[in-house]
Amino acid sequence: MMVKLRLEGRFVVVVGSSAEAIRRANSFGALGAKVLLVGTPDEGWSVLGSELCSPGLAYRYARRPRRRDLAKAMLVVATDRDLGINTWLSARAKRYGFLLNTLDVPEYCDYFHVAIRHPHPDIELGVSTDGRSPAFASSLATRLATSVTAEDCSTYEVLRDIRRQLRHDGRSLGVVDWVQLERETRLHHA
């Protein structure tokens, strides 16, 4: 089962010093999350810290996050593939109740990142391999997204507008045979 989380205003901790950590932090920030990036200081860290470009992002030099940060986190992502920190975070996830993702260590993960593509502004396609092959998930998501046609998008828009009107009129959405309505819409617009 895939779910989409609303992260606006939620606290997310990203642990790592790599370009991957920066990318993840910026992605969460773009979704409106309040993000703390915790990375071990190294020569490249000051450069990586300057690459944080989303609002609501902060970063700190540390070997690992503070417990008080973990206590308020909804999600934590460990990006450096460090078994010691992954094990430490896994134990803290159980204690503090945040969802944990450790790249390439599925046994510690409470959730997995999904390869997302947007063939239309309102349509998201997601592919997951439960962390076992993210590159394949990305490739497959791209191929699936390119198979979405202009007809698919216009059919979606018609169905979306019908649904909005029914809701506006206070009518039940459950009485509509949406599959049949989609067929009729495609025939009408063909």
Task: Compute the CA-based radius of gyration.
Answer: 21 Å
Figure out the total of helices.
7
Report the strand count. 7
| Shape category | elongated
Helix content: 40-55%
**What is the straight-line distance between the termini?**
33 Å
> In terms of structural class, how would the helical and strand content be classed?
alpha/beta
**Content of β-strand:** 15-25%
- Stretches where pLDDT falls below 50 for ≥5 residues? none
Mean pLDDT: 89
- What is the H-and-E element order? EHEHEHEHEEEHHH
* Largest beta-sheet characterization: 5 strands, parallel
Kindly report the spatial arrangement of strands forming the biggest sheet: 3-2-1-4-5
Could you walk me through the main structural features you see in this protein, from its secondary elements to its overall organization?
This protein has helices at residues 19-30, 45-49, 67-72, 83-96, 134-146, 150-168, 178-189; strands at 11-15, 34-39, 57-61, 75-78, 99-102, 115-120, 123-127. It is of the alpha/beta class. The strands form two sheets. A five-stranded parallel sheet has the order 3-2-1-4-5, with helices on both faces. The longest helix is centred in the last third of the chain and has 19 residues, at 150-168. The two termini are 33 Å apart.
